[in-house]
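Hi V.,

Quick status before I head out on leave. The structure for the redesign project is tokenized and pasted below; the design run finished overnight.
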């Protein structure tokens, strides 16, 4: 049996600046993700650790260290990561980066939320268990990008459901989280140059422009037009209707959803 990958690679050509992803059925009967890169193909599991490994019998290396840290804390002991352990955790985080980037290309936004949230958890864990700022920063420097991807995935889920206000609120929250990160970092001036913030700002404007207007917004626009054209009777009618609509919305009880 030939181990040469050229047949696979020729049938699926690499394209510069294009992220090419496909889902395939593995020999084990489970679906896998494949990401085409310039020198070959990365294949990943859809759940668990992307390479399918179980370090020390755990789902991931991060889980392993979290369990050890919890045991140490239960004994009143500190748990400090070495530089080598931080590097190993960072390498594992790169696997999840490749997967959530691939999942985004096939519109599996729930998977993107899961994997980006996991890497944000990784950043927090390393930051909490090392006193060396340079070790923490090797991961923290990627937080704005991961927050942006997490925000894009969450907002995309809402947009797919036609929930424009929720999507807009999610983008605003993500933008604020990135801004807050820079504000608390040693480099607050980087916020003004952040490509992640600029992307979310542009996306927010685009979505806001496409958002369907509510009945109240339509009536208010009609009233302004009526006033501008000196159709005062029509403007007064609309004013009264708007007042009634606002009163009705205020009086409507809010049902708490669990």
């Amino acid at each position: 049996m030939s181990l040469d990958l050229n047949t696979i690679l020729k049938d699926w050509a690499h394209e510069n600046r294009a992220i090419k992803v496909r889902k395939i059925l593995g020999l084990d009967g489970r679906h896998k993700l494949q990401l085409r890169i310039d020198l070959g193909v990365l294949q990943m599991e859809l759940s668990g650790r992307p390479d399918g490994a179980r370090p020390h019998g755990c789902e991931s290396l991060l889980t392993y260290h979290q369990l050890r840290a919890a045991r140490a804390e239960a004994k009143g002991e500190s748990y400090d990561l070495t530089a080598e352990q931080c590097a190993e955790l960072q390498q594992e985080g790169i696997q999840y980066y490749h997967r959530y980037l691939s999942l985004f290309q096939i519109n599996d936004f729930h998977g993107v939320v899961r994997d980006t949230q996991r890497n944000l958890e990784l950043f927090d864990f390393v930051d909490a268990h090392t006193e060396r700022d340079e070790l923490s920063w090797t991961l923290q420097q990627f937080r704005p990008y991961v927050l942006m991807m997490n925000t894009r995935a969450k907002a995309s889920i809402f947009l797919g459901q036609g929930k424009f206000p929720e999507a807009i609120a999610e983008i605003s929250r993500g933008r604020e989280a990135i801004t807050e990160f820079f504000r608390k970092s040693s480099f607050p001036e980087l916020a003004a140059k952040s490509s992640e913030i600029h992307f979310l700002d542009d996306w927010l404007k685009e979505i806001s422009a496409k958002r369907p207007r509510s009945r109240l917004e339509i009536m208010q626009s009609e009233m302004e037009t009526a006033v501008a054209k000196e159709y005062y009777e029509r403007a007064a009618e609309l004013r009264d209707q708007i007042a009634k609509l606002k009163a009705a919305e205020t009086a409507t009880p809010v049902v708490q959803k669990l």
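Above is the designed sequence. The beta strands are 20-25, 31-37, 40-45.

G. will cover questions while I'm gone.

Best,
W.
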